[in-house]
Write a structure and sequence with these properties.
With 116 residues, the chain is mainly beta. The chain has a single domain, classed as Jelly Rolls, CATH 2.60.120.10. The chain is built from one helix and eight strands; from the N terminus they run αββββββββ. Strands 1, 2, 3, 4, 5, 6, 7 and 8 form an eight-stranded mixed β-sheet that branches. The longest helix is centred in the first third of the chain and has 5 residues. The mean pLDDT is 93. Keywords: Isomerase. GO terms for molecular function: isomerase activity. It comes from Terriglobus roseus.
Length: 116
């Protein structure tokens, strides 16, 4: 067993909106992802959506208001709430979600998660 260096894991790829699994925890995937631009509006019917910003600034648009999340901050979108993450510049995130949860809320349109 050894510690996981998140910066080193993030340095292994350049593509955006493609989460990389770095560890597992009680049936959850712990992932890092680089994001830039606007993602798709979506929701997760069965699970909350956690965003922990490691670097940069993320806006999470929701139908009723926007939430701005900076480095060292996290925000949890409650299950069933439609949202759209937006990053004007590249943002590095840590995500934790139940294994197998599609990032778009729909397995048919979700990015394939890779392990790094």
């Amino acid at each position: 067993m050894k510690a996981i260096n998140l910066a080193a894991k993030l340095a292994t790829f350049t593509d955006h909106w493609s989460p990389r699994i770095v560890a597992g925890y009680n049936g959850n995937d712990i992932m890092v992802v680089k994001v830039q631009g606007e993602f798709t509006w979506h929701s997760h019917a069965d699970t909350d959506d956690l965003f922990l910003v490691l670097k940069g600034s993320l806006t999470i648009r929701m139908r009723e208001s926007d939430v701005h999340v900076g480095p060292g901050e996290l925000f949890v979108v409650p299950k069933g709430v439609e949202h759209c993450p937006v990053a004007a510049e590249e943002v590095h995130l840590l995500l934790i979600e139940p294994a197998g949860t599609p990032n778009t809320g729909d397995a048919a349109t979700a990015a394939v998660k890779q392990r790094v």
